Each structure stands twice: as C-alpha cells, then as structure tokens.
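Entry 14. Ran structure prediction on the chain below.
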Amino acid sequence: MMQYRKFLLFIIAVLALLVFLVWQYRVAAKPAIRIGVLHSLSGTMAASETPLVDAVRLAVEEANLSGGINGANIEMIVSDCRSDADYCAEQAEKLITQHKVQALFGCWTSACRKAVRPVVERHHNLLFYPLQYEGLEQSPNIIYTGAVPNQQIIPMVSWAMQQHGRRAYLIGSDYVFPRTANKIIGKLLRAGAGAIDESSVLAERYAPLGEQNFDAIAGEIAALRPDFVVNTLNGDSNLYFFRALQEAGISADAIPVFSTSIAEAELAAIGPQRVAGHYAAWNYFQSLDSIENRAFIKRFRHRFGAQRVLDDPMEAAYIGVHLWVNAQRSAGTPDASSVKIALGKQTLNAPEGIVAVDAETQHLWKPVRIGRARADGQFDIIWQSGRSVAPAPFPFFIPHAERAVMAGGSK
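Output, structure tokens:
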C-alpha cells in the first residue's frame, strides 16, 4: 500500500512537471508584449523617479508569473528621460515607432506629461501617468493613476485652513503643476471664509527646477510668518528648501509646510529630521495598516531589498501596470480600442484601498489622506477620506472661461 502511494505521488509529480514545461514552452513560443517605461534616471528628478521603475518592474514580474497576457510575457524597455520633458517626448516616439510598445508607463512633471501627450495621441497609444497633478486635462490616450486637485491639494489646503489659519505662503517650481495648483489654492484661500480676502496669500514665489539657493525664500517666510506654507517644489530642490528653513530657524511647530510632492522616498533623500512635523497629502502612505499594503511591502522588499521604502507615486505606477494587464486579459486582443473599453471597467483592491477607473475621465477613484512626517522617514496618517473619492479633474469652482488659461501654465 505504501509503495502504491509513493508511485501515485511520483506520477502526479511527473504530470505536474510536464504541464509546467508545456506551459513554459507555450509562453516562450509567443512573442513578448512590450511596454515602455519613461522615467528620469539622471538629472534633478532622478531621486524621485528612479524608484518608480522598480515598482513597474515588480508589477510586470508578478503579471508574468501569473501567466502574462493570454500566455505572452511582458517585456519592459526603460528609457531615461534625463529630467528633460522634450527629450522624454522623443523617447516616447522612439519606443512606439521603433520598439512597438503597446503602452507607456511614466513621466513625473506635468511638463513631461504635456510633452508626451501629443505623441501617444498621434499614435493612438496609451500613457499611464502615476503622479498627482493640477487637473484641467483629459485625454482618451492617458490613464491618470495619480490624484487630481479634489483628491489632494483641495482637501489638504482646506484642512490646513481649519487647523492653522488662512494666511499662506506659496512656493513652487516654475512649471505647469505648481503654477496651476497655486491658482486653485489661491482661490480656496481667498474665499475660505465665504468672502474674498486678498490678504490670505502673503506671497507666491517660484524657482527653476533644480534650484539650490532658497536662503531669500526662507528669510521672507521668517519675516512674513504665515500660518502655513504650501510647497509645490519638485525634485531635489526640496532638499535645499528644507535645509534653508532649518538654517533660518523655522520649525514645523511655528510654521508648518504642506507639501504636494514629498513622499517617503524624498524624506530619505532630504533627511527625515529636516522634514519631521511637516505635512504631505497623498492617496497612499507606506505606514497604511492594511492586509493588502503589508503584502505589497513584503513583496517589494523581498525583490528589491529589506531597507527600501515605498511611496505614493511608486504605488500609483505599480497599480497602473496591473490595471493595464487586467484590461488586456479582459479584452482578449491587443486592439487599442478594445483595451480602452476594458480599462473603463477596471477596479482593483490596491495597497491604497479600492481604486476604479472612471470611464468618463480616465482618472481613478481614490482615497485621500494627509500625513505628518516622522523622524524615522515615515508618515503618521492624521486625516483620511474613509472612502474612495470620485475624480474631478475640472474643479467646479473654476469657471469654464478660466480653465484653458489655467491649464496652459508655464514649462
């Protein structure tokens, strides 16, 4: 009897091996499906963008392990955008026309997205854009997996006014997102008490991407003593901004800073001690305590290292791949029109919570959270929406006549 059981187990093991080998052969026999990854691995945006490539890679590897797309593996082709929007658009063109990618995943700045947008529209391709941004845009060829204003900057500023007051100092990088975001923020601040109050915005300042000298800005903040600062700086300028605040003796208790582009990866680069006590608004924080997020962190660290941190743009990049894979599997065809229709029906139990593609706008329903930075490089979540919030890329309080002008911005 014992020998019979052993023989039976041996036969089952052999059959399982044969099935696996046949599956592997069939996968290998099918040509790989290519995707392009567009992120800056050099230049002022490198520290922020490089981790997103790993997030995309994890999602691709997970998809391939679960059968790929209808039996075909996914192949990543990574292009360094060099922190240059126009160069990124050139790379997008090359990935689509020469490498025949079926979708692009990438960009960080709105300048980059706006440069790549006409490329994907011209070729009827897809761009999955993982960053929170200023809204006032919609494209049938872009899936926006980051937040729009009503999922980040509007609740953040509203909470800041409730908790700290209405006198704000605005500082940002000199390109599309900060300038447009500050127009929206300005409207919120000036109408915060139900009546127009021009004194709510004490100053609105901009610095070029990559700027390192913020001594004058810090001095002005110290002199004006706003109730809070709204920071829309991007890239490594944040390091020099918070260093200047520290050297000027500006503490989080006295003048808190609310940032839109500082997540866990940036805290590590800046030095958590410099940012501790200040705030950020995102849809995802690594400190989120849920079964899905704990499993996500475990998988990521098993693949890329136990000391790695995760943040909102990384999670948004990761879920973008899975949404695309699920849509491809559902459509059963690489036809772009069919995939777009399938994308409009996608939901996902993501690390941040339940997300869903809004078929009308191609943006995601997402939960909203505000966090306070800790000295260990993580955030304490101090406020959250409690449910996924519908995307409103065109805020209702922005008149139609102003939308096109505001969306134009400056590179």
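The radius of gyration is 23 Å. Will compare against last week's run tomorrow.
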